[in-house]
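Title: [Solved] EAL domain-containing protein 3D structure

Original question kept below for reference.
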Amino acid sequence: MRCNHCLVEELVVEMIAEGEHNLKILLEVEQHLNRRNMFVTVNGNMFKIKESGVREFLDFCNDHMESEKVWFRLNGQDWKPISEIITILDMQWIDEVIIKQLITCHFQPIVDAQEEIYAYEILSRFKKHDGSLIFPNEVFSAAKIRGRLYALDRLCRMTAVRHAAILNKKAFINFIPTSIYSPEYCLKSTAALAKQLGIDPSLFVFEVVETEKVEDIDHLKKILSYYREKGFQYALDDVGEGYSTLELLSDLVPHFMKLDMKYVQGVAKDSKKQHIASVFLEKALTIGSIPLAEGVESTEDFQWLKGKGYQLFQGYLFGKPSSTPYEGSIEGSY
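Solution (posted by the thread starter after getting help):
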């Protein structure tokens, strides 16, 4: 099945114009853009324009139309004022990042209570065509604005799977549930690549990004069920006091649960964080999930968490993300 959401093709912007003056001049706009092969379709006061013609139309709109009565939208989303479209045009650079695969991966160790490396989280890093780095939050924000989140998430997943081939440990790989339309189609290529590389599926742990913000739980269940059927494992990240009920966690049955770093850092001296960390630990053990504390930066916090019964740890105390997997003894490296 051809997945249009994973392709990066020229955007087609849907627009709507209202007002007697705008409707009167719209025919001339259509004829002009048609001559330049920038117009797509028109139906009454609704029309579509290729991105290559949007800036020209915007200039014309600002000069000769009542621009406050013109709106646009992408992919059937909510209508927005035409003045806001410039933000989408300015984010066009994300297309090049995806098409040219300007991405690499860094590795951050995850250790057990004995400070032995248990796994690595594989983190995506991005660069422009000139080699300069782009912060991940910039990349994902731009992709979301331009409707490229699906294509970007797939690129990150597939790249991470390829990088996992050099490891002899588990690999934690992030994914965004809302970027996956249908697990059996969107994730088929991921499973096929792992098989092609000859990597045991159980060595992959797919980590739900922004667990707390997932609204469609049934959709998430379908995704996690697909992963489980294919032999992969999965983790929920940033779990804390605001997370849903124990019944829901029991329903999702994650292999790993990550305690949000805001409850980890300073936990050795903060009674409220200690309470949340203790409740989290109890939840994890109750449903048979492995508790993992992320963002560990001090020996005091590590010792407190280890003493409570946490099994896995991740953070700068044990190693920052690196372009090559950290090897050797973690213990005493800090």
